[in-house]
Amino acid sequence: MPVNETLARYSDWSYVSAVVVYVLAMVFYLVEQAMTKTRRQAARELTAVGGGSAEAVDAPAESVVVTRSPRADRFGRMGFSLNVLGVLLHAAAVILRGVATDRVPWGNMYEYGSAVCLFAVIGWLVLAKRFDIRRLSVWVLLPIVVLLFLGGTALYTPAAPVQPALQSYWLAIHVTAVSISSGLLLLPGVASLLYLFRAAYERNGRFAGFAARLPKAEVLDRLAYRVTVVGFPLFTFAIICGAIWAESAWGRFWGWDPKETCAFIAWVIYAVYLHARATAGWRGNRAAVINILGFASMVFNLFFINLVTSGLHSYAGVA
Protein backbone atom coordinates (compact mmCIF):
# COMPACT_ATOMS: atom_id res chain seq x y z
CA MET A 1 0.00 0.00 0.00
CA PRO A 2 1.45 3.44 -0.90
CA VAL A 3 2.40 5.80 1.90
CA ASN A 4 0.13 8.77 2.60
CA GLU A 5 2.73 11.52 2.32
CA THR A 6 0.44 14.18 3.75
CA LEU A 7 -0.17 12.28 6.98
CA ALA A 8 3.51 11.36 7.16
CA ARG A 9 4.41 15.05 6.94
CA TYR A 10 1.89 15.90 9.68
CA SER A 11 3.48 13.17 11.78
CA ASP A 12 6.91 14.72 11.37
CA TRP A 13 5.58 18.16 12.29
CA SER A 14 3.87 16.73 15.38
CA TYR A 15 7.11 15.01 16.39
CA VAL A 16 9.11 18.23 16.19
CA SER A 17 6.37 20.15 17.99
CA ALA A 18 6.33 17.57 20.79
CA VAL A 19 10.09 17.91 21.32
CA VAL A 20 9.80 21.72 21.43
CA VAL A 21 6.94 21.53 23.95
CA TYR A 22 8.88 19.04 26.10
CA VAL A 23 11.82 21.47 26.17
CA LEU A 24 9.48 24.31 27.19
CA ALA A 25 8.05 22.10 29.94
CA MET A 26 11.60 21.48 31.16
CA VAL A 27 12.19 25.25 31.29
CA PHE A 28 9.12 25.74 33.48
CA TYR A 29 10.15 22.84 35.72
CA LEU A 30 13.62 24.38 36.06
CA VAL A 31 12.09 27.74 36.99
CA GLU A 32 10.08 25.96 39.66
CA GLN A 33 13.30 24.35 40.93
CA ALA A 34 15.12 27.69 40.94
CA MET A 35 12.30 29.36 42.89
CA THR A 36 12.22 26.56 45.44
CA LYS A 37 14.37 27.79 48.30
CA THR A 38 16.40 25.68 50.70
CA ARG A 39 17.83 26.81 54.02
CA ARG A 40 19.42 25.04 56.94
CA GLN A 41 18.26 25.33 60.50
CA ALA A 42 18.12 23.34 63.70
CA ALA A 43 15.68 20.46 63.46
CA ARG A 44 12.23 21.41 64.73
CA GLU A 45 8.62 21.23 63.66
CA LEU A 46 7.90 23.49 60.68
CA THR A 47 4.75 25.17 59.51
CA ALA A 48 3.85 26.86 56.25
CA VAL A 49 4.56 30.60 56.25
CA GLY A 50 3.09 33.31 54.03
CA GLY A 51 0.83 30.98 52.10
CA GLY A 52 3.75 28.95 50.79
CA SER A 53 4.59 25.35 51.54
CA ALA A 54 7.49 24.16 53.64
CA GLU A 55 8.75 20.69 54.40
CA ALA A 56 11.53 19.47 56.64
CA VAL A 57 14.00 17.15 54.94
CA ASP A 58 16.24 14.99 57.10
CA ALA A 59 19.96 15.78 56.92
CA PRO A 60 22.90 14.41 58.94
CA ALA A 61 23.24 17.20 61.52
CA GLU A 62 20.49 19.67 60.86
CA SER A 63 17.24 20.17 59.02
CA VAL A 64 16.96 21.55 55.51
CA VAL A 65 13.77 23.45 54.83
CA VAL A 66 12.51 23.23 51.25
CA THR A 67 10.09 26.10 50.65
CA ARG A 68 8.05 26.32 47.47
CA SER A 69 6.10 29.55 47.05
CA PRO A 70 2.70 29.67 45.32
CA ARG A 71 4.45 31.30 42.35
CA ALA A 72 6.91 28.42 42.06
CA ASP A 73 4.06 25.94 42.32
CA ARG A 74 2.29 27.81 39.51
CA PHE A 75 5.31 27.40 37.24
CA GLY A 76 5.41 23.70 38.09
CA ARG A 77 1.76 23.26 37.18
CA MET A 78 2.32 25.14 33.92
CA GLY A 79 5.22 22.81 33.17
CA PHE A 80 3.02 19.81 33.86
CA SER A 81 0.33 21.19 31.53
CA LEU A 82 2.93 21.61 28.79
CA ASN A 83 4.07 18.09 29.52
CA VAL A 84 0.55 16.83 28.84
CA LEU A 85 0.37 18.87 25.63
CA GLY A 86 3.69 17.38 24.55
CA VAL A 87 2.34 13.87 25.10
CA LEU A 88 -0.72 14.64 22.96
CA LEU A 89 1.47 15.94 20.13
CA HIS A 90 3.84 12.99 20.56
CA ALA A 91 0.96 10.51 20.44
CA ALA A 92 -0.38 12.25 17.34
CA ALA A 93 3.03 11.85 15.66
CA VAL A 94 3.07 8.12 16.40
CA ILE A 95 -0.54 7.53 15.36
CA LEU A 96 -0.25 9.57 12.16
CA ARG A 97 2.91 7.65 11.16
CA GLY A 98 0.98 4.40 11.63
CA VAL A 99 -2.02 5.58 9.61
CA ALA A 100 0.24 6.97 6.87
CA THR A 101 2.00 3.62 6.44
CA ASP A 102 -0.96 1.35 7.28
CA ARG A 103 1.00 -0.60 9.89
CA VAL A 104 2.08 -0.39 13.50
CA PRO A 105 4.29 2.71 13.81
CA TRP A 106 7.46 1.12 15.17
CA GLY A 107 9.07 -0.59 12.21
CA ASN A 108 12.48 1.14 12.36
CA MET A 109 14.82 2.79 14.85
CA TYR A 110 13.25 6.23 14.52
CA GLU A 111 9.73 4.96 15.12
CA TYR A 112 10.73 2.55 17.85
CA GLY A 113 12.64 5.22 19.78
CA SER A 114 9.69 7.57 19.50
CA ALA A 115 7.31 4.92 20.83
CA VAL A 116 9.59 4.06 23.77
CA CYS A 117 9.83 7.72 24.75
CA LEU A 118 6.06 8.17 24.42
CA PHE A 119 5.33 5.26 26.75
CA ALA A 120 7.96 6.55 29.18
CA VAL A 121 6.37 10.01 29.36
CA ILE A 122 2.86 8.61 29.71
CA GLY A 123 4.04 6.36 32.52
CA TRP A 124 5.76 9.29 34.20
CA LEU A 125 2.70 11.55 34.04
CA VAL A 126 0.65 8.85 35.76
CA LEU A 127 3.28 8.45 38.48
CA ALA A 128 3.78 12.19 38.97
CA LYS A 129 0.05 12.74 39.35
CA ARG A 130 -0.49 9.81 41.68
CA PHE A 131 2.54 10.15 43.97
CA ASP A 132 3.10 13.95 43.95
CA ILE A 133 6.67 13.73 42.59
CA ARG A 134 6.38 16.41 39.94
CA ARG A 135 9.70 17.90 41.09
CA LEU A 136 11.52 15.03 39.36
CA SER A 137 9.95 15.74 35.98
CA VAL A 138 12.82 17.75 34.55
CA TRP A 139 15.26 14.90 35.21
CA VAL A 140 12.92 12.37 33.59
CA LEU A 141 12.36 14.56 30.54
CA LEU A 142 16.09 15.19 30.05
CA PRO A 143 17.03 11.71 28.70
CA ILE A 144 13.75 11.54 26.79
CA VAL A 145 14.42 14.82 24.98
CA VAL A 146 17.97 13.66 24.19
CA LEU A 147 16.64 10.38 22.76
CA LEU A 148 13.99 12.17 20.72
CA PHE A 149 16.53 14.64 19.36
CA LEU A 150 18.82 11.80 18.28
CA GLY A 151 15.86 9.95 16.80
CA GLY A 152 14.67 12.95 14.84
CA THR A 153 18.12 13.75 13.45
CA ALA A 154 20.62 10.90 13.29
CA LEU A 155 18.05 8.08 13.18
CA TYR A 156 15.25 9.66 11.18
CA THR A 157 13.72 7.42 8.49
CA PRO A 158 11.07 8.58 6.00
CA ALA A 159 7.70 6.86 6.22
CA ALA A 160 7.71 3.66 4.18
CA PRO A 161 6.42 0.07 4.28
CA VAL A 162 8.47 -2.29 6.42
CA GLN A 163 10.76 -4.86 4.90
CA PRO A 164 9.25 -8.30 4.12
CA ALA A 165 10.96 -9.90 7.13
CA LEU A 166 8.93 -7.63 9.43
CA GLN A 167 5.57 -8.10 7.75
CA SER A 168 4.16 -10.28 10.48
CA TYR A 169 1.54 -9.90 13.20
CA TRP A 170 4.38 -10.56 15.65
CA LEU A 171 5.67 -7.06 14.90
CA ALA A 172 2.58 -5.67 16.59
CA ILE A 173 2.84 -8.08 19.54
CA HIS A 174 6.57 -8.35 20.20
CA VAL A 175 7.68 -4.80 19.47
CA THR A 176 4.66 -3.27 21.22
CA ALA A 177 5.48 -5.19 24.38
CA VAL A 178 9.16 -4.34 24.23
CA SER A 179 8.40 -0.65 23.54
CA ILE A 180 6.10 -0.32 26.55
CA SER A 181 8.41 -2.24 28.87
CA SER A 182 11.49 -0.30 27.71
CA GLY A 183 9.68 2.99 28.25
CA LEU A 184 8.60 1.96 31.74
CA LEU A 185 12.06 0.66 32.69
CA LEU A 186 13.59 4.02 31.74
CA LEU A 187 11.82 5.55 34.75
CA PRO A 188 13.39 3.40 37.53
CA GLY A 189 16.77 3.93 35.88
CA VAL A 190 16.43 7.69 36.37
CA ALA A 191 14.95 7.25 39.87
CA SER A 192 17.84 4.99 40.93
CA LEU A 193 20.40 7.47 39.62
CA LEU A 194 18.75 10.30 41.56
CA TYR A 195 18.61 8.00 44.59
CA LEU A 196 22.41 7.83 44.70
CA PHE A 197 22.61 11.63 44.94
CA ARG A 198 19.91 11.84 47.57
CA ALA A 199 21.38 8.99 49.64
CA ALA A 200 24.83 10.64 49.58
CA TYR A 201 23.23 13.85 50.80
CA GLU A 202 21.37 12.12 53.62
CA ARG A 203 24.54 10.33 54.75
CA ASN A 204 27.06 13.16 54.72
CA GLY A 205 25.43 16.27 53.28
CA ARG A 206 27.02 15.99 49.82
CA PHE A 207 25.28 17.52 46.77
CA ALA A 208 23.12 19.63 49.12
CA GLY A 209 22.26 22.28 46.51
CA PHE A 210 20.82 19.64 44.18
CA ALA A 211 19.83 16.67 46.30
CA ALA A 212 17.96 18.61 49.00
CA ARG A 213 15.21 19.34 46.49
CA LEU A 214 14.74 15.66 45.65
CA PRO A 215 12.26 13.38 47.43
CA LYS A 216 13.67 11.30 50.26
CA ALA A 217 15.91 8.39 49.32
CA GLU A 218 13.40 5.81 50.51
CA VAL A 219 10.75 7.34 48.22
CA LEU A 220 13.06 7.11 45.19
CA ASP A 221 14.03 3.55 46.11
CA ARG A 222 10.41 2.50 46.44
CA LEU A 223 9.47 4.23 43.19
CA ALA A 224 12.23 2.44 41.27
CA TYR A 225 11.20 -0.91 42.71
CA ARG A 226 7.47 -0.56 42.02
CA VAL A 227 7.91 0.51 38.39
CA THR A 228 10.42 -2.29 37.78
CA VAL A 229 7.92 -4.79 39.20
CA VAL A 230 5.47 -3.66 36.50
CA GLY A 231 7.95 -3.34 33.63
CA PHE A 232 9.89 -6.57 34.15
CA PRO A 233 7.03 -9.07 33.50
CA LEU A 234 6.12 -7.16 30.34
CA PHE A 235 9.77 -7.27 29.24
CA THR A 236 9.77 -11.02 29.92
CA PHE A 237 6.64 -11.41 27.79
CA ALA A 238 8.33 -9.43 24.99
CA ILE A 239 11.37 -11.74 25.03
CA ILE A 240 9.15 -14.84 24.90
CA CYS A 241 7.20 -13.38 21.96
CA GLY A 242 10.49 -12.59 20.23
CA ALA A 243 11.62 -16.19 20.63
CA ILE A 244 8.36 -17.48 19.15
CA TRP A 245 8.67 -15.06 16.22
CA ALA A 246 12.30 -16.14 15.71
CA GLU A 247 11.23 -19.80 15.48
CA SER A 248 8.61 -18.88 12.89
CA ALA A 249 10.96 -16.68 10.85
CA TRP A 250 14.34 -18.38 11.24
CA GLY A 251 13.53 -21.90 12.42
CA ARG A 252 14.96 -21.56 15.93
CA PHE A 253 13.77 -20.02 19.19
CA TRP A 254 17.14 -18.67 20.27
CA GLY A 255 20.40 -18.25 18.39
CA TRP A 256 22.46 -15.88 20.60
CA ASP A 257 22.21 -13.12 18.03
CA PRO A 258 23.84 -9.94 19.49
CA LYS A 259 20.47 -8.33 20.19
CA GLU A 260 19.06 -11.48 21.74
CA THR A 261 22.15 -11.82 23.92
CA CYS A 262 22.01 -8.22 25.10
CA ALA A 263 18.29 -8.48 25.83
CA PHE A 264 18.94 -11.62 27.87
CA ILE A 265 21.70 -9.85 29.84
CA ALA A 266 19.31 -6.98 30.61
CA TRP A 267 16.66 -9.49 31.69
CA VAL A 268 19.13 -11.21 34.04
CA ILE A 269 20.16 -7.89 35.59
CA TYR A 270 16.56 -6.92 36.32
CA ALA A 271 15.82 -10.43 37.60
CA VAL A 272 18.81 -10.17 39.97
CA TYR A 273 17.55 -6.77 41.15
CA LEU A 274 14.05 -8.04 41.94
CA HIS A 275 15.34 -11.28 43.47
CA ALA A 276 17.79 -9.41 45.70
CA ARG A 277 15.06 -7.04 46.85
CA ALA A 278 12.64 -9.87 47.58
CA THR A 279 14.95 -12.41 49.25
CA ALA A 280 18.12 -10.70 50.49
CA GLY A 281 16.39 -7.47 51.42
CA TRP A 282 18.74 -5.42 49.27
CA ARG A 283 17.89 -1.78 49.28
CA GLY A 284 19.88 1.37 49.05
CA ASN A 285 22.98 1.83 46.97
CA ARG A 286 23.48 -1.80 45.92
CA ALA A 287 19.94 -2.13 44.55
CA ALA A 288 20.18 1.26 42.84
CA VAL A 289 23.46 0.34 41.12
CA ILE A 290 21.97 -2.92 39.81
CA ASN A 291 18.94 -1.06 38.47
CA ILE A 292 21.16 1.51 36.76
CA LEU A 293 23.15 -1.31 35.16
CA GLY A 294 19.88 -2.72 33.81
CA PHE A 295 18.95 0.66 32.37
CA ALA A 296 22.43 1.05 30.84
CA SER A 297 22.15 -2.36 29.19
CA MET A 298 18.81 -1.36 27.65
CA VAL A 299 20.31 1.84 26.20
CA PHE A 300 23.35 -0.13 24.98
CA ASN A 301 21.02 -2.61 23.28
CA LEU A 302 19.06 0.21 21.67
CA PHE A 303 22.01 2.07 20.17
CA PHE A 304 25.21 0.03 20.00
CA ILE A 305 23.68 -3.33 19.13
CA ASN A 306 21.33 -1.84 16.55
CA LEU A 307 23.77 0.55 14.91
CA VAL A 308 27.24 -0.97 15.29
CA THR A 309 27.04 -4.75 15.36
CA SER A 310 25.69 -6.95 12.60
CA GLY A 311 23.14 -9.66 13.14
CA LEU A 312 19.70 -10.90 12.25
CA HIS A 313 18.13 -7.84 13.88
CA SER A 314 20.29 -5.30 12.06
CA TYR A 315 18.14 -4.89 8.96
CA ALA A 316 15.62 -2.52 10.50
CA GLY A 317 16.87 -1.51 13.89
CA VAL A 318 13.79 -2.74 15.70
CA ALA A 319 13.88 -4.14 19.18
What does this entry look like structurally?
The structure is a single chain. This protein is mainly alpha-helical and 319 residues long. The chain has one domain. It has nine helices and three strands, in the order H-E-E-E-H-H-H-H-H-H-H-H. It has helices at residues 5-35, 70-101, 109-131, 137-153, 169-204, 208-211, 217-250, 258-280, 285-307; strands at residues 36-41, 53-58, 63-68. Strands 1-3-2 form a three-stranded antiparallel beta sheet. A hairpin with a 4-residue loop joins strand 2 and strand 3. Helix 1 packs antiparallel against helix 2 (70-101), helix 5 runs antiparallel to helix 9 (285-307) and helix 8 packs antiparallel against helix 9. The two termini are 24 Å apart. The relative contact order is 0.11.
Question: Keyphrases for this structure?
Answer:
disordered C terminus, 3-stranded antiparallel beta sheet, single chain
SSE inventory with pairings:
Elements: H1 5-35, E1 36-41, E2 53-58, E3 63-68, H2 70-101, H3 109-131, H4 137-153, H5 169-204, H6 208-211, H7 217-250, H8 258-280, H9 285-307
Antiparallel strand pairs: 1-3, 2-3
Helix count, per DSSP? 9
Class of secondary structure makeup: mainly alpha
Q: Looking at the structure, what is the overall shape?
A: flat
Instruction: Estimate nothing, just give the exact number of structural domains.
Output: 1
Strand content: 5-15%
- Please describe the biggest sheet, giving its number of strands, its sense, and whether it closes into a barrel: 3 strands, antiparallel
Question: How far apart are the termini?
Answer: 24 Å
Compute the CA-based radius of gyration.
Answer: 21 Å
> What sequence of helices (H) and strands (E) makes up the elements?
HEEEHHHHHHHH
Note poorly predicted spans. 42-62, 315-319
Q: List how many beta strands DSSP finds.
A: 3
What is the residue-averaged pLDDT?
85
**Spatial order of strands in the largest sheet:** 1-3-2
Query: How much helix, percentage-wise, in residues?
Result: 55-70%
